Amino acid sequence: MLSACTLSPDYQRPEMTTPAQFKQAEGWTQANPSDALARGAWWELYGDAQLNSLIEQLNASNQTVAQSEAQYRQALALVNSSRGALFPSLDLKAGKTRSSQGTGSSSSSLSNNSSGIRDTYSTTLGVSWELDLWGKLRDGLTANEASAEASFADLASIRLSQQSLLVQNYLKLRVMDEQKRLLEATVAAYERSLKLTQNQYRAGVSGQDAVAQAQTQLKGTQADLIDLVWQRAQLENAIAVLMGKAPAEFSLAQTEDIPTLPQVPSALPSQLLERRPDIASAERKVMSANASIGVARAAYFPDLTLSMSGGYSSSSFKDWISLPNRFWSVGPQLAMTLFDAGKRSAEVDRTVAVYDQTVAQYRQAVLDGFREVEDYLVQLRVYEDEAQVRAEALVAARESLRLTENQYKAGLIDYLDVVNVQTTALSNERSVLTLRQGQLVASVQLIAALGGGWDGQLEAEPKP
């Protein structure tokens, strides 16, 4: 009956008010998670084989994930150590002792050794078992198991974060490749405009100011094109490090396709508590802190240890292991602190305060999770509305540029009018690409905020 005692409070998940749905989810097109996701590989939603390959390399070689995985293995080791404390320990000792005592001693043991030096050979086999009367050891095991599960959730959270960073950098790089193609095409168009303006200047149709304006516009766009080189290189280097490679060992060739914007799987607010690894980690830390209260309370009660030992001791190696030289001892030991000036009480207060802290951290993690999902939902919804307007503006800008260039070629307007319209058209083209990048990045952030491929279970790794 005593061995069934435990002094930790009964654990209950901290109460948290969960809304029925996300505020910004109204009118949001929802995908079917079971059809859209393949075993949690959420990055496959973007339909890019090269991106899938990069994520596989990240999963295998990312050093931040490797650090977290090592921390998880440390937590598992602590669990195994705590579990071992529930069982008896068996010790074997064997040794030789050489000792000396002054000649003035009255000890009869030195009567046969005039030099006062004596050799002692001993071997001892001992068994010790601390009975867990008050649940201290079991509460310690429970605390470490919860900490190991929190560590596993931290590992999942870090892996998801690193995957999210890589996907975001990859999508930005692909949009930047499209920006590069746009600027290259624009530079070619401006070069044709400059050549046309120079011909008209030589024919006396245009002034030298038109030539200067065309040159200024061309050189400015060429500078923008050059500026993309270092920006793309930084994204490429970031992807290399995320995969555990030196930047010099990695490069990404330019492609002509931008991954499509996927339908993001939906989740209810209540499901978020199970899907997000950071929330799962916060809750398991509450479990660990709750069990630690029982460990602290058990210090008020005595510890009972059963021990037994036996062996042989002799001054002669020849007769060391013999029946006359044997010895043994057996008996319980009860240990209890009678006065510690409030040390145990302070430790209980500390563990209760730690528990309250972890409860607040859990609730804050839940609130942050709700906020992130709401933020990215409204961001994607606004981006969608903005994309329609910008697409219409781009069509109008392209038509205006076509008409203006025709008027200039016919000599009806000055080149300054052409420059202004060309600048507006290019600005609209780049704005559309920037918006496309924002949509893709926000979709990645929303998937991560919804927990990515996390399912709240620990079967993917050995259970502690």
TrEMBL record:
It comes from the Bacteria. It is a lipid-anchor. Keywords: Cell outer membrane, Lipoprotein, Membrane, Palmitate, Transmembrane, Transmembrane beta strand. Its main location: membrane. The keyword rRNA-binding does not apply. InterPro entries: MdtP/NodT-like, OMP_efflux. Residues 99-115 have a biased composition (Low complexity). Residues 95-115 are annotated as: Disordered. It is found in: Cell outer membrane. It holds the Pfam family OEP. PANTHER family: BLR4455 PROTEIN, OUTER MEMBRANE CATION EFFLUX PROTEIN. Belongs to the outer membrane factor (OMF) (TC 1.B.17) family. This is Efflux transporter outer membrane subunit.
